[in-house]
Write a structure and sequence with these properties.
Blueprint lengths: L1 E5 L7 H15 L4 E5 L5 H10 L5 H23 L5 H25 L7 H5 L1 H15 L5 E4 L1 H4 L2 E3 L4 E3 L1 H9 L8 E5 L2 E3 L5 E3 L4 H12 L4 E6 L20 E3 H9 L7 H9 L4 E5 L8 E4 L9 E16 L2 H4 L2 H12 L6 E5 L4 E7 L3 H11 L1 H5 L7 E13 L8 H10 L7 E4 L5 E7 L3 H13 L3 E8 L3 H12 L1 H6 L2 E9 L3 E4 L9 H7 L2 E2 L2 H9 L6 E5 L4 H4 L2 H6 L3 E4 L9 H14 L3 E2 L10 H10 L4 E7 L2 H11 L4 H10 L8 H4 L2 H14 L9 E2 L13 H7 L4 H13 L3 E9 L4 E8 L12 E8 L7 E6 L3 H14 L3
Parallel strand pairs: 1-2, 1-9, 2-6, 3-6, 9-11, 10-12, 19-20, 19-23, 23-24, 24-25, 27-29
Antiparallel strand pairs: 4-5, 7-8, 11-12, 13-15, 13-16, 14-15, 16-18, 17-18, 20-21, 21-22, 26-28, 26-30, 28-29, 30-31
Helix pairs in contact: 1-3, 2-3, 3-4, 4-6, 8-9, 9-11, 10-11, 13-14, 16-17, 18-32, 26-27
Length: 814
């Protein structure tokens, strides 16, 4: 005997009803099957609103609407399965809803709904589900036995939330003579009290019914069919990289359920655990999925964690005062009164040294708990033995579940570390009270980030980097291509780079999980989300996981002024944008102070030398105590190319035009030839070395006369540049005559004096052969003399710059 239970989502429409019938048929070929059915999706909730709201004439309209849902359902079944007895089923539906209408008319007369009538109203969906399934199976030539839960399941409790007496119910069902060839059907959610009245079993009542019937029939297995593949390691609506659990123990399932996982209600687990009946969670939308097996305790060698879950809308009561220490029965009185009033206490945290106790409960109970506690301890409060009750609202309890979790090394420390990385404070912790769970209390606003951090730390073997990319010009696109190309390599290194946002100055593409880099451009074009700083900051507010990074591949000054704000939100910053590092010394220092305080990285390797390891090399060098004697460098790839062409006899205007065509220059080459870009890079280096200077402190010897500033149009600028061709040719020839070349060089002296100018250098200089877009940097230091440290390579181009950004990205996790 095997028991199958199908929830409301599995019976949501005609196709799903018939799919359930197919599953029942297939299972019945191997062994006898008992089936427990819920009402079709949303029907029970719909009927519940009838008894929860004011009973008036509008209720009859709602009854008709509910009836029509069932009529449409069986009409669709008839179209798909022609032998289905539509007229007989329709007649049953009409009879049931006519009963409801008579009940409602009676309620309208007495102007109230008796408690005993409420379960009759809200249980119609389950009863009709059984009748519809009976008719489907009989039309397929199957014999069916229907068990009446009112007469066979004895309940204890109130009309709307009863508990089953398993022992008595077992006796009753044992007396029934059921043909072993018959398929057994029973409505879930329903039972009968000792007076024979219909009652319902409260939340998850159908699952509970299934567990009870499985126990009563001595079923060898209880299958709970729903709309998910089984038990996952976390809520997939919140955490993107969850995975299916093959097996969990009864106790683990109980803990998961108790702390909020939508697996099974604890009441459902109790009977299957008591009678050692295995339970399988299966998916009617994916019948091939193996599901999750719930059974006896795990093998002691099983060290795997099983899930992270949460309870929302929690409050924490803080009760303090001298009587907690001096009077031993005060704490007992607190929990006796709460137990007597059926108030659920989720966590208890006691601190005897501070004469206080904290307990967590649901927010909905706050007013009543406050009322009964004040009434109970009126005298103690009046005498000052108890302080006013302090209540902390808007909390969440996160719980990590796993067998013998309290004995596992480093689990608690990993939890705290993952939360600490995002500045999430832990208000309370329960560790050791249950050997299968660790629970922490945090603010509700940190739920999303907290559960993602913990899950990624404990359950995902790969190190995840969440990227928010702003700027998809040449460098941004090259970066995306490089990361896509390296996916296999990164996978081998257990690194997963997830792009959560891709944006330009006009719009953005954002996904809660991860953007597929194979078709990001197509999806970006489809996106209708606008981009501005207000929208960006709102989006970032609730999306920061551990290892979340903002990459700025723009040259936008306003965006660079947001870096401190981004860091405070929990993001690392990687930027090829030089604006922040060349802003005021005050802002430059504030970024670093904030990054240090928030334990975040601010990386900008490509600010100087594109993909060359300049910044990282300098930081490593000077952190070991080395000191600069002097520096000279060619810091512009575009000017390296142009001056190299001048050396070959190419005219200035033609060399500049060729550099622009190859993508070495800014849109208007004046920006390159002005020398300001080289000055900014020199400023970054000087500050990195330790000099507290501003951009205005750098002496720039202009390449061009002042009058060229007015030519903002690139074509006009290049045309006018011809006026300087002969001057530069003469200057180049003069240098060549004595064996020298011209180079545009940035210099830093030991006293911090910085300059940018054209210099004439000979063949002994390390910069002599640097051209064709190369950068070269020569550092004379205490450690590197008389031969300098030289860094040389291409310092311009999208690919090398993107490579530098990519390198910074991997440094986030190193």
């Amino acid at each position: 005997m095997k028991l199958l239970k199908f929830g409301g989502t599995s019976l949501a429409n005609a196709k799903k009803f018939l799919c359930v019938a197919d599953i029942i048929e297939k299972k019945n070929k191997k062994e006898q099957i008992a089936v427990v059915l819920s009402a079709p999706a949303k029907i029970t909730n719909y009927l519940a609103t009838i008894i929860e709201n004011k009973i008036d004439d509008e209720v009859l309209k709602k009854i008709n609407l509910a009836k029509n849902i069932f009529i449409e359902l069986i009409q669709d079944i008839k179209r798909i399965q022609p032998l289905f007895p539509y007229e007989n089923t329709k007649s049953t539906i009409e009879i049931e809803f006519n009963k409801l209408k008579k009940i409602i008319n009676g309620i309208l007369l007495i102007k109230q709904c008796p408690e005993g009538i409420k379960p009759i109203i809200i249980s119609r969906g389950e009863i009709l589900s059984v009748d519809i399934m009976k008719n489907i199976l009989q039309s397929r030539n199957h014999e069916v036995t229907i068990l009446n839960p009112v007469t066979n399941l004895l309940s204890i409790g109130n009309y709307l939330d009863s508990t089953i007496d398993i022992k008595e119910s077992k006796k009753r069902i044992k007396k029934i003579n059921i043909d072993q060839k018959n398929i057994i059907l029973m409505a879930g959610f329903i039972a009968g009290n000792k007076e024979g009245e219909l009652v319902v079993l409260g939340r998850n009542g159908s699952d509970y019914s299934a567990a009870i019937l499985a126990s009563c029939l001595n079923a060898k297995c209880c299958e709970i069919w729903t709309d998910v593949d089984g038990v996952l390691t976390a809520d997939p609506r919140i955490v993107s990289n969850t995975y299916l659990l093959d097996y969990i123990s009864y106790q683990e399932a109980m803990e998961l359920s108790y702390f909020g996982a939508k697996v099974l209600h604890p009441r459902t687990i109790e009977p299957i655990s008591q009678f050692q009946i295995p339970c399988v969670i299966k998916n009617t939308n994916n019948t091939e999925s193996k599901g999750t097996w719930i059974g006896k305790e795990n093998n002691p060698s099983d060290n795997s964690l099983k899930g992270v879950t949460y309870l929302d809308n929690i409050i924490m009561f803080n009760i303090s005062g001298s009587c907690l220490k001096d009077s031993g029965n005060t704490i007992a009185r607190i929990f006796t009164i709460l137990s007597r009033e059926s108030m659920k206490i989720i966590l208890i945290i006691q601190s005897s040294s501070e004469n206080q106790i904290n307990f967590c409960t649901f927010e909905k109970d706050i007013d009543y708990i406050l009322l009964i506690l004040k009434k109970e301890f009126t005298l103690e409060i009046k005498e000052g033995l108890l302080n006013d009750f302090n209540i902390v609202k808007n909390l969440t309890i996160l719980s990590v579940i796993g067998s013998n979790i309290s004995e596992k090394n480093n689990i608690a420390s990993k939890i705290f570390s993952s939360l600490g990385s995002s500045k999430i404070n832990v208000l309370a912790i329960a560790h050791g009270s249950s050997k299968h769970s660790i629970s922490i209390v945090i603010k509700k606003e940190n739920l999303l980030q907290g559960i993602q951090n913990i899950h990624n730390t404990l359950f995902f073997k790969k190190t995840i980097i969440n990227v928010f990319l702003i700027g998809i010009g040449g460098v941004g696109k090259a970066l995306l291509k490089q990361i896509l190309k390296q996916e296999k390599f990164l996978d081998q290194k257990n690194i997963k780079i997830q792009f959560r946002m891709i944006a330009n100055s006009k719009k953005l593409l954002f996904l809660k999980n991860s953007i597929n880099l194979n078709n990001w451009e197509e999806n970006f074009k489809k996106s209708k989300e606008k981009f501005n700083l207000t929208i960006l900051n709102e989006l970032l507010k609730n999306t920061c996981d551990s290892n979340s990074v903002i990459i700025d591949c723009t040259s936008d000054y306003i965006l660079s002024k947001q870096y401190i704000s981004f860091i405070k939100k929990g993001f690392h910053i990687i930027t090829s944008n030089k604006k922040a590092n060349t802003d005021s010394l005050k802002y430059y220092s504030e970024i670093r102070t904030t990054a240090l305080k928030e334990n975040k990285k601010f990386l900008y390797e490509t600010n100087v030398g594109a993909g060359l390891p300049v910044i990282n090399t300098l930081q490593s060098l000077f952190s070991t105590g080395d000191c600069l004697i002097s520096f000279k460098g060619i810091l512009s790839g575009s000017l390296s190319f142009i001056f190299g062409k001048l050396e070959e006899g190419v005219l200035l205007s033609e060399a500049t035009k060729e550099a622009k065509k190859l993508g070495f220059t800014e849109p208007n080459p004046f920006d390159d030839l002005s020398g300001i870009d080289v000055a900014r890079k020199l400023l970054v280096l000087a500050r990195e070395i330790g000099y507290s200077i501003e951009l205005k402190d750098i002496s720039i010897e202009p390449i061009l006369p002042e009058r060229f500033k007015k030519y903002q149009n690139s074509e006009e600028f290049l045309f006018k540049l011809k006026e300087l061709d002969s001057f530069f040719s003469e200057r180049v020839n003069k240098a060549r005559d004595i064996g020298n070349v011209l180079r545009f060089i940035g210099s830093i002296e030991k006293n911090g004096k910085c300059s940018v100018k054209i210099e004439e250098i000979n063949s002994n200089n390390p910069l002599y052969k640097v051209k064709n877009g190369e950068n070269a940097l020569t550092f004379y230091t205490n450690y590197y003399q008389p031969i300098p440290l030289v860094l040389r390579g291409y310092g311009a181009g999208n690919d090398v710059t993107a490579s530098g950004v990519f390198s910074d990205l991997l440094r986030i996790i190193l």
